[in-house]
Amino acid sequence: MSLMQSPLDSWLPRLPLGAWTESAVDWATGTLGPFFDGVAAVVEALVRPLNDLLTGVPAVVVVLVLAGLGWWLRGWKFALGTAVGLGLVAGMPYWEETMSTLAQVLVASTLALLMAIPLGVLVAENKRASAVARPVLDLMQTMPAFVYLIPAIFFFGIGTVPGVLATLVFSMPPGVRLTELGLRQVDKEIVQAAESFGAPPWMVLLRTKLPLALPTIMTGVNQVIMLALSMVVIAGMVGAGGLGDVIMFALSQVEVGSGFEGGIAVVILAVVLDRLTDSAGDRFPSARAQRLARQAA
Amino acid sequence: MTLKRALALTVTAALALGGAAACGEQDDASDNGKKITIGYMAWDEAIAASHLWQDILQDKGYEVELKNLEAGLVYGGLANGDIDLFLDSWLPQTHASYLEKYGDKLEKLGVWYDDASLSIAVPTYVEGINSLADLAGKAGSFDGEIIGIEPGAGLTKATQEKVIPEYGLDGKLKLKTSSTPAMLAALDGAIADKKPIVVTLWHPHWAYAKYELKDLADPKGTLGQAEQINTLARTGFGKDFPEVTAMLKKFKMDGEQLASLEDLMFNTHKGDEEKAVEEWLKANPEYLNTLS
Questions:
Q1: Where along the sequence do coiled-coil regions lie (chain B) (predicted)?
Q2: SS3 at position A58
Q3: Which DSSP symbol is given to A255?
Q4: Contact present, B96 and B227 (Cβ < 8 Å)
Q5: In whole angstroms, how far apart are CA B289 and each of B10, B51, B246, B249, B280?
Q6: N or C: which end of chain B has fewer CB within 10 A?
Q7: Which of A72, A158, A255 shows the shortest C-beta gap to B271?
């Protein structure tokens, strides 16, 4: 790497940003070791049983359960589509990898949402928190996904745990943003009405704002799951296993066939999860009320 | 609605029960402490040797997991104990930097292949070029390109930093990096069309069995001397798995054995490594006896 010489060189000090980051990570690996071990144990305790469950039962059971969910949430057409799509995946040699990818996505996105939604409420209610959170969220979303893997390896070695945690960090921001957006978009007049009945602020939040913001929050949930799915594949690079592993191997061997099979499995998983979370948001009473109001208008 | 709910509940209950049963089985398998993780990067001889040993050890009753990672991560994994075994350590040169960093956290179990070397090769029908020194004058016939492999490979580094400057190829031939399979695809295509091509390659490789190739002489020694492929294990592996360690210390392969295994794995049974290993072991029935 040759650095360009420019007249500004003497004016601009060379910031040892990389060195600082390295020493920060070094310090964290040493000092926070027990904490990271605890985190790793928790993630392991969540992923492993779910992974064993999904890979342990016959594929046909998983297909039926997801199709049943689809039937309940969206209707028989979608159920049929789910059954056909997942049936196709089950017919390929990568069912087990697909299920462990699903397990990782479910754990990572659940953990991400457990942090993202309360954070979203906080930044919606608090202007200062919002100002602080915005640049941090921007950084989280624009940082190239691969970069998250590097500290993850340092803190958690290789395997499923660093993969899930890098996925968690990568997929969190839309959950925070859309929760904030949903709460800010709630009609001021309705909030005022609630307040004029003497409802305390937490009651207004719980009984008025959150229900009305739910459809937007569910969009956030959906986005988190989609991002998690894309990251889990990248996490194949650090030995997280699952479809990422299949795709990485296909890439390094340039095996078009198995790469495509792995890719299609990801696509089908994504479509099913996307539609399921999408329709879950429409089932809340508040969403139904809003739909009826729109129809009446 | 109620019918659907009932159905969903029934199926979910079935799933939960099945899952519980599966968990019960899982525990039995992982309790006996016979799980071995083999790390490998997607180099042909690494894939071949790792799958061979997976087969051998599974027959002995071990649970073997293969993890495909970049070389740096394999060494890191060995050093912190995430990975038990690594069968494709190129020493003394190619992997020297990793050994420097992690050498004190590894156990060396010996050399299993001792004639590994980097090369720059052309098909035999390319005439008038027998040495790297001949390339500078003929750059035009190769479209100004040496077809290389992965950007991070030691072979790429040696070609870029030693071969090109020392044989005066700067500005005449560029090293085009992509991936090993892409290089092999380019080689295959050029040979099919009888076109001149120059590639970075190495021994052991099945390409030498499949095509008529010649290595270009390297009078300046830019590509280094022949290397050895070593078996490495994490610290403490020898104590935890004495039986496996004893077998691994006896592990040896000659050029022909490895080339035939790779040919089965990457050409005949592409995508089905297990089948390739089984077939190779059938064709070499005496091989397993050399390990005990």
A1: none
A2: coil
A3: -
A4: no
A5: 54, 18, 13, 14, 14
A6: N
A7: A255
Distance separating alpha carbons of residues A135 and A141, to the nearest angstrom: 10
Q: Check residue B23 and give its pLDDT.
A: 47
B179 CB neighbours in chain A (<8 A) are 251-252, 254
pLDDT tens, residue by residue, A39-63: 999 999 999 999 999 999 999 999 9
Of the given ranges (A28-32, A258-262, B14-18, B286-290), which has the lowest mean pLDDT? B14-18
d(CA A206, CA A87): 41
> Per-residue pLDDT tens for A155-203?
888 889 999 999 999 999 999 999 999 999 998 898 899 889 888 888 8
Cβ atoms of B64 and B30 closer than 8 Å: no
Q: Which residues of A touch B17 (CB under 8 A)?
A: none
Please measure the distance between the N-terminal and C-terminal CA atoms of chain B and give it in whole angstroms: 65
Q: d(Cα A105, Cα A231) in Å, to the nearest integer?
A: 9
Say yes or no to pLDDT of B35 above 60: yes
What chain A residue is nearest to B10 in terms of C-alpha separation? Answer: A65
Q: Which two tokens stand for residue B159?
A: 């070609």
pLDDT of residue A199: 86
**Structure tokens given for B158:** 């040696």
Interface probe, candidates B12, B15, B25, chain A, greatest A C-beta count within 10 A: B15
Distances in Å between the Cα of A114 and the Cα atoms of A85, A111, A280, B184 are 30, 5, 17, 48
At A48, list the tokens: 């492993």
DSSP per residue over chain B, as a string?
Answer: -HHHHHHHHHHHHHHHHHHHHHHHHHHHHHHT--EEEEEE-S-HHHHHHHHHHHHHHHHTT-EEEEEE--HHHHHHHHHTTS--EEEEEEETTTTHHHHHHHGGGEEEEEEEEEEEEEEEEEETT--S--BGGGTGGGGGGGTTEEE---TT-HHHHHIIIIIHHHTT-TTT-EEE---HHHHHHHHHHHHHTT----EEEEES-THHHHS-EEEPB-TT-TT-S-EEEEEEEETTHHHH-HHHHHHHHH----HHHHHHHHHIIIIITTT-HHHHHHHHHHH-TTGGGGG-
Position A110, amino acid: T
Is A203:A255 a contact under the CB 8 Å cutoff? Answer: no
- The top-scoring range by mean pLDDT among A201-205, B101-105, B231-235 is B231-235
Is the dihedral angle over the CA atoms B260, B266, B268, B271 positive or is it negative?
positive
Shortest distance, CA B23 to any CA of chain A (angstroms): 6
- The closest of B176, B172, B130 to B149, measured between CA atoms, is B176
A248 part of contact set with chain B, CB < 8 Å: yes
pLDDT in tens, B160-172: 999 999 999 998 9
Q: Which of residues 222-241 of A touch B (CB under 8 A)?
A: 237-239, 241
Question: Quick check: B20 and A50 in contact, CB under 8 A?
Answer: no
Distance from CA of B31 to the nearest CA of A (A): 15
